[in-house]
């Protein structure tokens, strides 16, 4: 198939990613023409904020569009892709971080080009069209695709204001789990910190405010620093007495104590404190 920026584009999926991708593609000048969803009402709701885009059935979209993005949950990709009437004049692109191109094997057997475009980003339901579009600015997108679709996807990512990395040789499960650590598990970490804060006798509302601020500052400190340079707190300064006090205070919360210890060991591995002190803190953390 001929790849160009005037080929007709459709998106199957009108959720968080599908919505953000739709707004971003239109803002970058790409000819997005159709949206479909399992619930057509979801597609209709999305296209109400998109100029000159139609909500159609999945079959109609596949029949009419040259490029089809599958912005659906991972568990539906293989079944959906295997059920549609692909042709050799199409490109099919899924958005999963954990799945390779095998889930599009039926489309490939029918002659379609297959690919993956995975934004390493979080998308929220409450995002406005402008916020959805801006979610792609300066992020990284993982790409895997048949040639020459891969080049088209690289250029598309650049047009969205993002950066691309190639995923062909990556362990996709580990790649995706790293992204989960850096996004979803940050939420879990703030939740755990807030629980411990309330155990101290302080309010949850104040905890969210104080802890979210220090979390944001800590992340920002990493922008231009190594892990060791961005570290603060008792482990960074080799204060084993405070670490021991923390562990003792968490005796009544063994799961939080284990989490504190495991994260402390990870932090310790990146620290540059005196070896003897590092050994002492390691023994404290490993005892839980």
Description:
- The protein is built from 14 helices and eight strands.
- With 288 residues, the protein is an alpha/beta fold.
- It folds into two domains: 9-170, NAD(P)-binding Rossmann-like Domain (Rossmann fold, 3-Layer(aba) Sandwich), CATH 3.40.50.720; 182-286, N-(1-d-carboxylethyl)-l-norvaline Dehydrogenase, domain 2, CATH 1.10.1040.
- Helix 4 (74-82) links the parallel strand 4 and strand 5 (91-94).
- It is elongated, with a radius of gyration of 23 Å.
Summarize the SSE layout with pairings:
Layout: E1 9-12, H1 16-27, E2 32-36, H2 40-47, E3 54-55, H3 58-64, E4 67-70, H4 74-82, E5 91-94, H5 105-109, E6 113-119, H6 129-134, E7 140-145, H7 149-159, E8 163-166, H8 172-182, H9 184-199, H10 204-221, H11 227-230, H12 240-249, H13 254-270, H14 275-286
Parallel strand pairs: 1-2, 1-4, 2-3, 4-5, 5-6, 7-8
Antiparallel strand pairs: 6-7
Helix pairs in contact: 9-10, 12-14, 13-14
Descriptive terms for the model:
single chain, 12% strand, elongated, Rossmann fold, alpha/beta, 2 domains, eight-stranded mixed sheet, N-(1-d-carboxylethyl)-l-norvaline Dehydrogenase, domain 2, 288 residues
Task: Summarize, please.
The chain has 288 residues and is of the alpha/beta class. It has two domains: 9-170, NAD(P)-binding Rossmann-like Domain (Rossmann fold), CATH 3.40.50.720; 182-286, N-(1-d-carboxylethyl)-l-norvaline Dehydrogenase, domain 2, CATH 1.10.1040.
